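Model it.
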Amino acid sequence: MSPTLHAQILTLKKYQAWRKGEDTRTMDEAGIKPAAVTSALNAVIAIAENHLRDGVKKAEAVGRLCDLAHEAVEVLDGLSDDPGVQSLSLRLSKAAADAGQPANNLSDDSGYGAEGRLLLGGNRILEEWKKS
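Modeled.
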């Protein structure tokens, strides 16, 4: 049976304390096994990679939703001058901007909302990871 994530994190914390000199015992005395450290590092790396992949999938989904919102805004803008329709168009456009995509000049100065900037940053990190 493989160790739990909690156990692997504890292994890494114990190793880190030893590595930094906070625990002055030998690895054997401290109960640090190189194979357990390797296993814990591999598990944490796999979790981080999966987290990045999930973030990119979410960013792609948000992008698709924003694209659909922009299309809906264009359709609504052409339908009528009814204040209710125009209000819906404005709210859709604002929601797309808030989700991190440029939307009819309603976004912030950079063209992206805070979540969009985070998603774009995650995308750049994943691209760097793919190159390595």
